[in-house]
Amino acid sequence: MSRALYSLLLALVSITALQAADRPNVLFIAVDDLRPELGCYGKPHIHSPNIDRLASQGTVFERAYCMVPTCGASRAALMTSIRPAPNRFKTYFASAEEEVPNITTLNTHFKNAGYTTISNGKVFHNASDNAKGWTESPWRPKAPTYKLPESIAASKTTPKRRGPAYESADVPDDFYGDGKLANKTIEDLRRLKDKDEPFFLAVGFFKPHLPFVAPKKYWDLYDPQTIALPETYHRPQNAPDAAIHTSGELRAYAGIPKKGPVSDQTALNMIRGYYACVSYTDANIGKLLDELDRLELADNTIVVLWGDHGWNLGEHTLWCKHSCFETSMHAPLIVKVPGKYAGQKTAALTEFVDIYPSLCELCGLETPTHCQGESFVRLLKDPSAEGKPFAIGRFGAGDTIRTDKFRYTEYSAKQQPPHAKMLYDHQQDPQEDTNIVGRPKLSDTVKTLSEQLNTTTGK
């Protein structure tokens, strides 16, 4: 190589490094199975002071929707900005690397742009998925699942099943994995502060995923006398069989009957345990936000917090996330941009495939042409601006579309037309308690929604 060519290449590398150094950092916080049941979403019964603090410093997306309500598929779609399909991103073990091997994932794109990219905890469902897109090997905590002797015993003596669905033990935060995860992320922030290049630090908290295990002090935040079963603790009127399942994920835990409803007391305990886990994760998130402030990184760090999908706490007779109901598709999304857009809420419809191109725009990176989402930065600038006309999602045999007023779902059989449909009017029935798809006066609405749904999904 000639000296002149070497000098040119060195100059180009130096310019790229300078450009990267001027870009903001990104703290990318994922929370498994997090419902938008938080103080900042108008739910004051939940103790979420740290997430609420983040919301006061940023923008709350009140109507953000995942693409698939199951872990692997949701995360693969988000991290690629590629929509799911009947043959792509279908299950909890969906892999971006295997299913769309030629697509540049979000973390890889930032790495290629000069960022130090780190994955702690559950970012992709499988830690090995797209491992080359991280500057360092993905890290996950090693910690016991349970503390109480009876919980440990149940996990060992129940054949082919897991331990209890919940536990309240008087232990410090870092006894369980998420506490260790917060500690590791704080250590990373301290060493990343001294690096010349910006960072994309992704941290994925496991709770409130089952089992609902959290230190006792978080359980104590919730008086059991104030916990109630949901108003929709029954099957929606006229709901098709295709929309209802037996909550198989929950059935794997000790103390849960193999079929049929759980007892009311078990249901109430699980709801309280879920709330406790939300508050436990909130406390761990607070530690990261505190460290950002202490290290004086907050003024140059974009913070994105998202739950990978919703979760059912007995609504529609369902537990877990797997459905096309609003409770499964609706998830929290909060974005903080330093010095801008603080204390805002937007009701515009937003999809998780939009996160990738939005971060590109916020950080001054070119958006890859493969991205199927669209940037929501204009909503940060004007939260009252009109959003997307609809959000599309799917689970199993169901494809679902959410507009400002309606949620419409079709369940496909091997033969067309679809063998089951649902329509809910969110202005009249926000809890989706009555399927009105068969009402004659709504036939034109159903036809329009079906066309929009099938055009977008490519059917």
Plain-language structure description:
The chain is α/β, with parallel strands linked by helices. The protein is 32% helix and 18% strand. It has one domain (3-389): Alkaline Phosphatase, subunit A. Strands 4-7-1-10-14-2-15 form a seven-stranded mixed beta sheet, sandwiched between helices. A four-stranded antiparallel beta sheet has the order 17-18-19-20, with helices on one face. It is globular and about 75 Å long. Mean pLDDT is 94; it is low at 10-18.
Q: Uncertain segments of ≥5 residues (pLDDT<50)?
A: 10-18
Which architecture name does CATH use? 3-Layer(aba) Sandwich
Number of helices: 14
What do we call the CATH homologous superfamily?
Alkaline Phosphatase, subunit A
The gross shape turns out to be globular
What number of domains? 1
Mean pLDDT: 94
Helix percent reads: 25-40%
For the biggest β-sheet, the strand order reads: 4-7-1-10-14-2-15
Structural class by SSE content: alpha/beta
Our estimate of the beta-strand percent is 15-25%
- Can you count the beta strands? 20
Radius of gyration: 22 Å
CATH class: Alpha Beta
